[in-house]
């Protein structure tokens, strides 16, 4: 029984390693297609928010990741901040011809608070803490901080018909290095830097097109991003 248990553990470890052994083509431009939504319930401090993302190592043939995330939001009275408790389902595919994938279930908490500098610099700070249940790995945690900046060109707010610049930088830090089965990661997980342009389609809906540079310990890659941002 011990030999069978050892062989099974070794097989799981080899499968996990093979999934990440082949790094992505760093010269190939990938693409992320994303929909973000946010709704505040009428006469209530509660609401919902989330995002559905379809990520590809290329522009649509080689799937990198499917991410489905939804959370319940709460806005305290007389406070310019929003808290979220949410859940995410993530399926990550290997680069290239392999059809292997790893499933992750994720619980997260976040705080989101906007800040305005002058008339046109619209900052948003987001702090997120994640509890990650990754297939064939031990329980993991991660800390994230994102600083968003939107700069409208033809108005002072993001409304219908407004063209604006959109920028952000997000830092990811792992909560531990040992992830089980003899595998380990560094505390630094990744960093994402984004530059884009947006347009107000409706009073409560915006579209963005941009470029994002994602840097990890092992590789760095450019991604085109197309996103819809919807409040209702």
Automatic annotation (TrEMBL):
Signal peptide region: 1-21
A Pfam entry, by short name: DUF2490
Keyword tags: Signal
Lineage: superkingdom: Bacteria
Alphabetical list of InterPro entries matching this protein: DUF2490
Protein name stated in the entry: Uncharacterized protein DUF2490
Organism field: Marinoscillum furvescens DSM 4134
